[in-house]
């Protein structure tokens, strides 16, 4: 079985010195009927944390939650305490009650391995311009380390004393991350990282090397400098969060599949809404001077609101209007819609708009991006989820229409690129070194994509370095291979004082590299 959220089922067992790097819970709230036309299909709700080490089992009609033995469970469950240097986990799975079915793609199941609360479960974050405010959710103290604070080249440490306690940090760039652990958890999840969206902090800053024009839902960038490269082409959803899903490059070249070279154009019509606030970062050169800029522009001008939900689910489409008596039937055609790429461990939607075919009167088959999939034409569209496990590379998505009449065999193709997955790395010290005794440390790496639960944890190697306050390196672990996404090592005995520690993950064939910086105090 595969995990719906949590960690991959095959990597979930925790034994001996192996600590499972848990994925963040992606969903909250109550379950709902999944399909208006099928009242027996229900969608489970995700368990929610009610304390740093406790989760509440949802109550959803038509859904039963069971433990590892298949026994029904309800109410509140406590995460077992760490044992032998390993983080405890609670296993839950949602199964359909008699007369019901679970609505979810076949390749995923509703299954969770839940450990101590992660970063974004422990605290809530509010970003106002450059200021990021952290608020503790639970009574136990929470330690937060922020990477990307203004004027700091190392992590900024915060301590939140209890529920409702707050602390504010000023960001210094377009992105930042934070790690959090619960002070009551001695083997806390230092790998428990979460991103922060601080793009508005730098919006409009720098020296621009492009001009933009908007043609409906297409935005074009023309260079006014040399070697112009566009990154982070994204948009604001209605809830204020930033998203890349549904963004499609339609003109221009790329350096690595994610960095576009100007002149370039991106299309946002797959979002199906108007007044989309487009965001981007760019770098350019003027003579021998490197320049950067962060900008925004509005695409798809019109009266409707920007998207309020992440279009990793099927984008909303206008209903197909069937011809009235005496009106010639429209020609059958397929028009590509959706994403043209994703990172490994991330899943996106692709599909085609279908004209000239009534709802339910045809099917579309997708090949070329994972296993063969077939979908029925509904509301003038056929959509498919590209699996998160699709390996990095370049593919061609091929859509073929099947009908009993006109248009049978109509084809449409689109290039699709999969790039290395983004990863985070973190560390947990279960025994702090002293001047006379060595310590013990665990390092873990995890993917960050919305499909991370369905793929194995990253492979590769890590290197750990310890520096004195004056910057002199006092210890290096060497490059050490991860096993199941983790590596455990002894730390050397250290003189009293505060040290800076860096953990560098090399990346691998499926993952980009990542690093973490933290401080340790030896007493």
From TrEMBL:
It comes from the Bacteria. Residues 299-326 are annotated as: Disordered. Residues 310-325 have a biased composition (Low complexity). Residues 1-36 form the signal peptide. The keyword Signal applies. Keywords: Signal. This is Bacterial Ig-like domain-containing protein.
